[in-house]
Each structure stands twice: as structure tokens, then as C-alpha cells.
From TrEMBL:
Pfam families per the UniProt record, alphabetical: NMT1
Signal peptide: 1-25
Domain SsuA/THI5-like residue range list: 47-263
Keyword set includes Signal: yes
Entry-linked Gene3D superfamilies: Periplasmic binding protein-like II (3.40.190.10)
InterPro entries referenced in this protein's UniProt entry, alphabetically: NMT1/THI5, SsuA/THI5
Protein known as: ABC transporter substrate-binding protein
Coiled coil regions, renumbered to chain: none
Record keyword Isomerase present: no
Amino acid sequence: MKRWILGAAALAAALLAGAVLTACGGDDDDGGGKLTPVTFMLNWTPNTYHSGVYIALDRGWYRDAGLDVKTIEPAAGGTAQVLAAGKADFGVMAQEEIIPARAEGVPVVALAALIQHNDSSLYFLKSEGITRPRDLEGKTYGGFGGVLERQLISELVKCDGGDPSKVKFVEVGNVDYLAGMESNRFDFVWVFEFWDVLRAREVEKKDVGSLKFIDYTNCIPDWYTPLIVTSEQMIKEKPDVVRKFMEATVRGYEVAMKDPQAAADAIMKGAPESDRKLLEVSAKYLSTRYVDPGRPWGLQDREVWVTFTQYLRRAGLIDKEIDVDAAFTNEFLPKR
């Protein structure tokens, strides 16, 4: 799973281009009778981050709520512009996309955190001998050339007593990371533990290791990646649709936490081209990580938003303050 890492400049370019608006094919109303048509834009290929949505679809909970929900492919430039233009109703974005989008005046709003903590990792072949961040000295990072990538990796290395100037950064873009490492084009990359690392380790039986970001929150912040998002316009004009969509979606994720096999089965049913083995190991892995014990699914903390916004400002990813209270809301999560 390749990460969307958009800097402010890239976001602005995408806004100006407007080409992404054609990527989703517009409204997806198939004439579902009295049902209200709703579109949900994925952030990548169907995967276990989307479990709750696929379970709700499979069990008919959206239709029971009067909604005809369709999933659509992600737009080339990201989800924010499509939501803001009203070409999709809901989507999936990470905080490092939402905050720059808000800074550029794109009115997207986070409705729920898909998982409580960042599942990002730096992963590598074990033959590289990497066991801690300072071991990245002398290694080559392959990524998208983003400001945030360089900032995070440099801080991790420095925090562990290493010299970040000895890490080499190369821009490789959207490539097969495992193949790139095996051919010595680069030594480590930034991925999601629940997908890329599990696929390499559990499905392809590769001897890989990883440094999980969540293990180094003494050096870098924890943040939400990803979240379910919508637009300010959707909240203002169709709050009943937002509430119904979220109620059914929350039910789906609650099932995914209790029954990971049901999550894998629902995604396979909705996206039969998926890798069943990967879905099963990934669904089991995520089932205990969606929320911390005792917390309801989806709840966002203001402190996380404030802290990560300040971090992006220091990293140079945004050059202006944003109203964090307008960037997210817990209003549409069921009160239980």
C-alpha cells in the first residue's frame, strides 16, 4: 500500500488541475428507488482499513438506514478535492493530508479515526542489520520525496543518537517496495504494518523487519492515519445522511473488532480480486488495534489534532495555522 504524502505545493497543483474530479465518475446514483445515493471513496485498493464499510454493505445496514452506498476508486490527486467539489460524499484520508488541505482552504472534516494509533512502519530486509533508528545511518530510504518523510526519519535517527545527515533519500514513487529492496535500489521504506509488512512476512514468507512509529512516540508524534472524512457542505446540508452513514459504519467496525474472519469475508465478497490470506491475517492483526480498551470506535482526541498540526507547521508542510476544531468532529458517532 503506497502512502499518499502530499505537500502543500502538490495539493495546490492538484486543486488547480481539477483533473481528479473526473476520476471518480461523478455521482453514483443507480436509481435505488427511495434510497439516498451515497458514495464512499476508498484511499487505495480495498483493504482491511475499510472493513467496517464492507461489513455494513454486506449485512444491508446502509440500505436499512435508507442509504444506497457505493464504494468508488480513489482519485489520482487524493480525496479532498473530490469531497469539496461534491463529487463524493465520504472518503478516507490521513491527518497529514487533511491538515494541509484545510490550510489550503479545502473544507474537509474528519468524522472518525479508523484506528486509534498510527500503524506506520519503516520496513526493510533483515539482512540490512537494522534493529533501531540509529542503524539507519548509511542506509538509503526510498520514498516520495516528501518533506514529512525526511523530517520524521531524521528525527527518529537523531533521537536515537544517530546522525541523520548520513541517511540517503531517493525518490522512487509508486513502485514495488519489496522488489526494490531486494534489488538493492534502496534499503528501507515507509509503509503500513497491517498491510505491507504482514504481506511480506506472513503471506510471501520474506525475512523482513520493521521499526513501528508507535514504538517511538518519545521522538515523533502519534497521529491518525487514516480517518473517515466528509465535507463541510455535506455536514451542513445533509446531516441526517452523515449520521445514518456513520451509525451503520460504526456497527461494521464493531463487528470487525469482534470477528475478524467476518471482516475478511465481507471484503472478499465486495472485492473478490483480493488476496484472502492477506485479508485474514490483516483483519486479525487490526481487530485488537482499532481502539484502546474501554474506548468507543472512531473517537478522536483534540490533543492529537493540535499536536500533529503543530508538528506539520514545524516540518514546513503547512505555513499557516488552521482551526483544528473545524477539521474534525465526533458529533456523528453514536452516543453510547
